[in-house]
Amino acid sequence: MSDRTLNLDDKLYQYVLDHSIREHPAQKALRDATRSHPYAGMQISPEQGQFMGLLIKLMGARRTIEVGVFTGYSALAVALALPDDGKLLACDISNEYTQIGQPFWEQAQVRHKIDLQLRPALETLDARLATGEAGQYDFAFIDADKTSYDGYYERCLQLLRRGGLIAIDNTLWSGKVATHDTSADTVALQALNIKLHQDDRVDLSLLPIGDGLTLARKR
Length: 219
Ligand code: CA
Known about the structure:
The chain is of the alpha/beta class. The protein has helices at 10-18, 25-34, 46-59, 73-81, 95-107, 121-130, 149-159, 184-198; strands at residues 63-67, 87-92, 114-118, 137-142, 160-169, 202-207, 213-218. The chain has a single domain, classed as Vaccinia Virus protein VP39 (Rossmann fold, 3-Layer(aba) Sandwich). Helix content is 42%, strand content 20%. Helix 7 (149-159) links the parallel strand 4 (137-142) and strand 5. The protein is globular, with a radius of gyration of 17 Å. The structure holds calcium ion (CA).
């Protein structure tokens, strides 16, 4: 019996995958297509994608946001979990990376759910706020440049309805948040973690899944 999260060695991690992952063939194919990419480590793990899909279904989410698409695996996981008329506002600046994922969105027949916006996410989110979409969204996933996380969080919090959920990726940052590392990314994540811990606008959980996934439910 332990009061701590297990450290997963390779064997136990493989067991988790073998006994839980239920990917659409397009998800597996997209992971394979991303594996050789120089930034392949930016892709979320399959168990995290499946967990986020479960959250979407539990919440009955229909309108969702993603900040940081990369090659589109997390967008695919969320879109597959949405109802057919559900929407994902997908924010990224890279046409090159997001193009990798689009054939797999089509293969999974979820392309119509994904509204891909290629410009700085802060601009996209501010534009949605300006057109009166505050309080209209159910779920947001933040997984982009770490130094802008606080800006994304504040905007997503406004766009979410009460009871909506923000999932923030990489909040453990390979363990560097618990060190004296002074890189801009680490410092930004440390500051955000401190802020979230004290933020009484949300209910909070920091999960040691993947590289750390913080869940913040808007009160
Ligand atoms: Ca990430």
